Amino acid sequence: MAVDWTQLPPEIIEIISRKVTIYSDYLHFQAVCHTWKSSIPKTPNHLPPQLPWLLLPQSQSNQSSYRGFFDLSTKKFHFLNLPEASHRKKHCGSSHGWLIILDDSPSILVINPLTRRKIHLPAISSFPNVVSFDYANVGREYLLVKPQGERYTASLRQMRDGFIKKLVMSSSPLEKKGDFFVAMAILCSTGDLAYCRNGDERWNIIENVHSFSEDVIYFNGLFYAVNKAGQIAVCDVSGDSPKVSIIETPQQSGGDMQYLVSSGDELLLVTRYLDLDVEFDDFIYTTMRFEVFKLDLNGPRWERVRSLGDLMLFIGENSSLALPASGFSGCMGDCIYYTDDYSATNYDFHVGEHDMGIFRIWDGSIEPLPCYPRNSYSRLQRPPPLWISPNPC
């Protein structure tokens, strides 16, 4: 006797839907029939972190409002209406599925590409080292002050492209209405860390951590920032004034960049090694290898990790992410999926290739991402590709 699955009780359908962990599968679940669609929430709030999509750059000639995203699992492209992220804009990070965008204004826009929900963080002009802002002072709209007290000016474009290195958030800003969240920014010009909480009108500088500007993540209720030597500053910004403690590990030497990644209750350090080449007086950087370490607080010291097992890491301008490969089709464990996030010089040079790919830890080899065949030379486009996790909330 055939079973009519469309006649399942709504409460059973909802229970089954909560077993679905992939967003695309949830959409397919909704599409089975009207009964199933009406029995479950339109927006799934139970989903774990999703496999990141790769936000692709937009060519200068492309005036479309749509941006392309590449899905590693299905090897397919998705095109979303996202005029806020045109090639004239700069993104300075992605966090919890939200994209942070700067343009030729003091505005800092945070947008969810799936839902198109938006929030605005306090403006660039509200950072403590920005003395004043005046649109009428063309080409010198910003007046800033250096830590030593010297004042200087900067244009709209200079501030857009060179003021904020990276911005991460403690949680999805609209996860629940009224939820507490914090945004943390690394400043290019000084290497300072600055933060704001939801509802703040200005940014606040965290004193005495200006060298901890390689990367920052939110981990176990606190922000962790790393310096070039692999030492960690732990920042608690939940109170009236920030509290900072330093984890002084033996110095990590030889690497060019450091990234922090949280995996369960472990904190990982990823060291990136770059090779430098000169082309027509331009400096072009290429990733040669990565090394991974985990924090041993008994030292404290960084302990070398020779294998990630089923784990895969996603690093770049995004808030770094660790996921199990077995939970997603078409992905490999013991790998680092990386994008280029370190030098605007690469994009001032007109012909070359994006420094991005898949680093296999077990043999140290690098293979191209499926959407970017290695050695396929083309005109580089800005902003560079960026990992962003689909977040329907």
Automatic annotation (TrEMBL):
It holds the Pfam family Beta-prop_KIB1-4. It comes from the Eukaryota. InterPro entries: F-box_BR-signaling, KIB1-4_b-propeller. Residues 69-359 form the KIB1-4 beta-propeller domain. This is KIB1-4 beta-propeller domain-containing protein. It comes from Dovyalis caffra.
